[in-house]
Design brief:
By secondary structure, this protein is of the alpha/beta class. The chain has 5 helices and 5 strands, in the order βββααβαβαα. Helix 4 (113-128) packs across helix 5 (136-156).
């Protein structure tokens, strides 16, 4: 099972998870925001670009972990968590993953410059079409759309 993920967090130096999204290849979604995020612990970038996009229905970390566990109840033997910033996305999501879940990391990789250009153009087009940049769910959807475009291109030439 391929799951596209994105997170938003307070700052680069001492990141605390603000929100997270998981989107499967077949468009099943999970999005949550965590309680306890004050603008005082956020970088100015997050205050200006991330916090205004939050829905305001934050949940506790324990509740988030239960939601993530339910999300993965239907998971295949191994899940690939696909993201564009594993240093942050994976590390911040790890505490919420069920202990029994077998997972690996997937990141965008391309066979050539044309594939990379297609990925970047599709990713950017998703935001021009109305997705909100720096909203975890919309970012995960954009990553999914871009990667699925590259994969469909690869399969059409085989």
């Amino acid at each position: 099972m391929l799951v596209f993920i994105d997170t938003e967090f307070t700052c680069l130096t001492e990141p605390y998870l603000v929100s997270a999204a998981l989107v499967t290849a077949d468009n099943r979604e999970l999005y949550f925001e965590l309680v306890g995020v004050s603008p005082s612990i956020c970088s100015s970038f997050v205050v200006e670009n991330v916090l205004p996009l939050l829905h305001g229905q934050a949940i506790t970390p324990a509740e988030a972990a239960r939601h993530v566990e339910r999300f993965f109840n239907e998971a295949a033997a191994t899940v690939t968590l696909f993201c564009d910033a594993p240093r942050y996305d994976i590390e911040l999501l790890k505490p919420f993953l069920p202990a029994s879940l077998r997972w690996e990391i997937g990141v965008p990789s391309f066979e050539d410059e044309e594939e990379e250009a297609i990925y970047r153009m599709t990713y950017e087009a998703a935001f021009q079409a109305g997705l909100r940049r720096h909203h975890a769910l919309d970012d995960a959807k954009a990553i999914r759309r871009a990667w699925c475009t590259v994969i469909s291109r690869q399969h059409s030439f085989k």
